[in-house]
Amino acid sequence: MVVKTWKKRPAHHFILELLEKKGSLTDVDLFNALNDEFKDLGIKDFYELLMRLEIGGKIRVTSMARGKKRIELVK
Question: Which long-range CB contacts under 8 A does 36-42 form with residues at least 24 apart?
């Protein structure tokens, strides 16, 4: 029987810390970094987290060429 434990910090805190450290990232790079830390997080959950952070005024998501998105921290 596998017992899952709670993470020490939520995924949205990890996203904010990573963006503060790196500046801006593409959605693919951010998802890969997040997926290394949170294995059970899917792409749908990732975009929901981004949407909540953008609505909350914490991040800005802009479209780039060919469906890529640029995510940056709002200061």
Answer: 37/7, 37/11, 38/7, 38/11, 38/14, 40/4, 41/11
Supply the pLDDT for residue 8: 74
What is the arithmetic mean of pLDDT over 9-38? 92
Give domain status of residue 3, yes or no. Answer: no
Instruction: Using CB atoms within 10 Å of the CB of residue 67, give its burial: 0 to 12 exposed, 13 to 18 middle, 19+ buried.
Output: exposed
How many structural domains compose the chain?
Answer: 1
63 CB burial (10 A radius; 0-12, 13-18, 19+): exposed
pLDDT tens digits, residue range 25-71?
Answer: 999 999 999 998 888 889 999 999 999 999 999 999 999 888 899 99
Q: Is the residue at 2 inside a domain?
A: no
